[in-house]
Amino acid sequence: MTQYFSTPLAIFLTLLAAGMWGSWMQVVKLKKDYPISGIAFMLYMFSFVLVWAITLVLSPVLLPEGLIVAISQHTDVMWEIMIGGAMMSIGLLISLSIMNDLGLMLATTLSGAVTSILGIITSISKEGLPDDPKALPLIVMTSVIFLLASYVCNRASQMCSMDQAAAEGTVNGDKPRGKVSFKVIALILLDCILMNGWASGTASGTAAGIQPILTCAFMVTGSAISMLVAGMIIFTRNRQWKTVLCIGSSKKPLLLSAISAVCHYGGNVLSIYAMPAISATLSFLFGKTSSIWTYSWGFYYKEFQGAKKKTMVVLFAGLALYFAGLALLFFYNFG
Predict the structure, then answer these.
(1) How many CA atoms lie within 13 A of 64 on its CB side?
(2) What is the domain partition of the chain in residue ranges?
(3) Per-position DSSP letters for 80-108, written without gaps between them
(4) Lowest mean pLDDT: which of 49-63, 126-140, 162-176?
């Protein structure tokens, strides 16, 4: 397996990718009346153009054997990676819809535990454990810490919702947050299963030794195809094509989608190139720090406005656990 970066640089790039992942979803706050499905659709259309443009321009350097030859050498894994990308994009569409109803932080914390477990199991099953006897204890300990962090933060989000409901029921004039009903829980579980396509696709590519840019190109192709099919159904049925394409209206949603594409799949490219140096499993764990960025942006948008002091103490305890897990990962790599 080709290692492209040193371990410190690989970790830095993975954390940078996590920051990009934890930041771009703020478009949910800025889209106004633009349909959330339109954001997801345009994001993956822009991502497809972005990743394949990079692939074609840099293929003489990154793929010296030639793009066509490189693809033909990995057709057996290509479909598996594309399916992973397709699952991820549909999962992201569901995830954005949930965030739009529940709020960014609550939706993120509810899905954190299931996503973590599935992602770690998938990464290990595809790639195996790192060749270090300390790897398994580290993965178990860090996973437990991150799961506990997700639970504590979820509890804080629930407490905040109760605090706000007891006060006014709204935050800054926004509509009241949606309730965590059985339907919402079912959607979150489905979303977690679909979003696991990211771990499945990237781990498959890394384990097979495929060039990272080609893994990303396969994934974005699957994402674009699945979102194109979903868009044709949703936008045709709801007669929303003019709205989604911003025909005769502000082009700001298209700009937001393009920026989101750079953060989302740009982060994917950075993460996949860094994986060989730290393994897909550890990369996945480092990527969980995206939640810290999500909460940071949540504070900026005052999602915890009106929360009681006790609620904030619980929240900061959850965030401290995320940093404790991150410190453990650093100790493993540099201790």
Answers:
(1) 0
(2) 11-334
(3) HHHHHHHHHHHHHHHHHHHHHHH-HHHHH
(4) 162-176
Residue 96, Cβ neighbours under 10 Å: how many? 22
* CA nearest to 45, candidates 214, 231, 197: 231
Distance in angstroms (rounded) separating the CA atoms of residues 265 and 37: 18
> How far apart, in whole angstroms, are the C-alpha atoms of residue 244 and residue 206?
35
pLDDT tens across 174-233, in order? 444 455 556 667 777 787 788 888 888 888 887 888 888 899 999 999 999 999 999 999
Task: Considering only the C-alpha atoms of the chain, give the largest distance between any 2 of them, rounded to a whole number of Å.
Answer: 64
Residue 245 is given by DSSP the state T
| Whole-angstrom distance, CA of residue 295 vs CA of residue 79 | 35
Note if the pTM is more than 0.70. yes
List, for residues 94-145, the tens digit of each pLDDT value. 877 776 665 555 555 556 666 767 777 777 777 777 777 788 888 889 988 9
**C-alpha dist (Å) from residue 200 to 43, 168, 180, 206, 230:** 21, 43, 28, 10, 21
Query: How far apart are the C-alpha atoms of 157 and 311, rounded to whole Å?
Result: 8
